[in-house]
User: Fold these one by one.
Assistant:
Number 1:
Amino acid sequence: MKSFKKIALAVVAAMTMGTLIATPASAAVMTVAVDLNGTANTTASSSATPASLPLPVDNEINAADALKFVATVDTGTAVTVTATNATIVTALHTSTAPVTASSGSSSLTIATGTGITATFYVYTKTTAVGTVVVTNQGTTLTYYVQGDITSTKIHTLAVSAPANGAAGTKQTVTVTATDAFGNKVPSKSITGRIFGSGGTLDTATVTTGSTLATFGTAEFKLTLPTASTRSLVEFSLTTASDGVNTVTPVAGLATPVLTPYAEIAVRDLAAELKSAQDALAAEKAARAADKAAADAAAATAKAAADAAAATAKAAADAAAVKAAADLVTANAEVAKLKAEAVIAKADADKALADAIAKATADAASAKAASDLAIADLKKAFNKLAKSWNKKNPTAKVALVK
């Protein structure tokens, strides 16, 4: 059995090694064909010459908007695609299967199954350079795309202006032109129109910039009026065809804004200063009144505090006098008690001495009586003993000394 297992393992190992050796020999290196609306593109593989794509301002991803990629690979393999600043779709727009500017994703994996090609499309909504990275079996190819702003129409005019300004001063109002996807649009003329006596513009027409600092923006210089409370300026495209159709806007995209306005409140600095001065004076008067009231209240409070303090001091002084008198009385009582204690001690000492003397005399008398009684007893005993000894010479008893 062990020999059979060894043979089986050897066969499997040999088959595996044969597969590993054979795979590289048969693997085809992926090739990718790129075209835009049927015209081959040979420059997109360089970041310096990205494929220029129209922006899908009609909200339909058609052949004219999307770069087509056809990757040729081995049967049964998969093609992985990732995109930055661009979007991947697997089909183009049709009336029955719409593909819009919100369709697609930034990554996609296409399994070829029994075929040898993977087809997908890439579109962009930004003028920033985007990348498309295509990978199959260790081969990775990178392509570059960029949205073309030159043929894009303005979809939105946005206004930035100060909320207010002093009468007669010059203010800057900035108008930014963007397409339907928020890309700034350069080299387009914008016209400003002031309503009523709302001030004056240095120039009524300004072209959006094309440099890095001013790209897609137009600055208007507005001198605020001196006899009005506000300045109202409307902005619009100098050439209407530079903007999108506002009558029938594109479905699925934001509503166009091509006639915004700026409203700036005009400040009368002299009137504001006078009002501020009056307010300051009123505030000072109010503070003076408050101070007088506070001073009066403080004086009243001080008088009340002083009276309370005097009352408290008188009560404290009286309590101190009484305490002193009580102390004198207490001291006299203590002296009396001390004297009585001395007398009591003398009496106690005499009584003790008398008792000791009496006890001593009594003890001496008792001892004398006891000694006499003992002597008498001895004498009587010896008398009896002598009489006994005479009668009983064989059983004599000793005499007591």
Number 2:
Amino acid sequence: MTAQLDVLTVGYVGDRVAGTVVLVRDGDLVAVVDPGMVASRSRILDPLAHLGIAAEEVTDVVFSHHHPDHTLNAALFANARFHDFQAVYHDDLWVDREFTDDVSQLSPSVRLLLTPGHTAQDVSTLVDTGDGVVVCTHLWWSADGPADDPFAPDRELLRASRNKVLGLRPALIVPGHGEPFTPTTSTPM
């Protein structure tokens, strides 16, 4: 079984900041990853509508971490369950997340992986697609890194999590603020 992944909007950093926002579909799971800051909410909602999905049909939202540039537009998805490194949240329910070997399953082809680095509470979303594993993560801001993340509290922890992700041999990495890229030997560590 494989999931389908669509990039709704590509993020950037500079004078302005926007996060890369992704849609993942796997059976009954319709998940948006990192619905954060964008120039306009239409940068999230229009691509969803083009794919035939209304905001109220989104079942799950995943936060790679809790910075506003990755969470600000979560309220667009009023019916969704919300996922982070710690729990699943829905309405007034808080259910602690269980990890086995740093992995928590969301659906048959989608799982969360503990990957502290950019923050101590980071998770990466692993999506099994027809082209291989795609990793949505903020371990890289873009294909160029930065090698030394200015927010990372522990450079060695960042490097260890990057190694963990690269060890999965992903077909594609979807970074926090840039175009998806295929990792190579020059991918910043």
Number 3:
Amino acid sequence: MAQTTILGRIGQLMRANINAMLDSAEDPEKMLDQLVRDFTNNIAEAEEAVAQTVGNLRLLEEDQREAQQALTDWGSKAQAAARKADEARSSGNTADVSRFEELAKVAIRRQISFEAQTKTFESQIAQQTELTDSLKDGLNKLRAKREELVQKRDELVSRAKMASAQRQVQEAVRDVSVMDPTSELNRFEERVRREEAMARGMSEVAASSLEEEFASLEDADTEAEVNARLSQMSSGAPAGAGSSS
């Protein structure tokens, strides 16, 4: 029976250990989304089943009312036939007595038949009412459980995102703590110092070249003086006298 199957699935969902399912799930968010879909689908089926059982219940109630009315009608007909038989008996009309008594018996038989139908309908209505109440109760529990699940899903997803963000921050802090926070700056400063030293060295090299050039000029002047004096000495001029300008 479709309604029984729905009730079985409702029971399975209500008994499901969601926390254990989430603990064992590789992706809890997807698991929650799937559970929400399962509840939503079963709610839709349960609503349809409830509508069907309520419809069937109303049909049984209509059938019972019709059977009860027929029971009453055939009871009245049996009583009317029995009265006619009594009147015919009082008047000595034997033929009418037999005819009316036979009609009364037919009416009584129909009355008995509808009494049985009425009892059957009462039993079926009781069963259908119980099933309808169970489905309605299960449907209401499913709706409440789904709302709870949606809220829990939103809460857990939010908490998971916050936890992930906190973990990333902690990992970043840990990475900074593990290494020397000034190491990169120190390496850059050392490179700048080397560049500065190189610049100073190049400056000193350039200055040294200029000094050597001026020194070579002075050496040339000295050598010219030496040659001039030597020439004077060779010509008999007094030593140490400078050349005339």
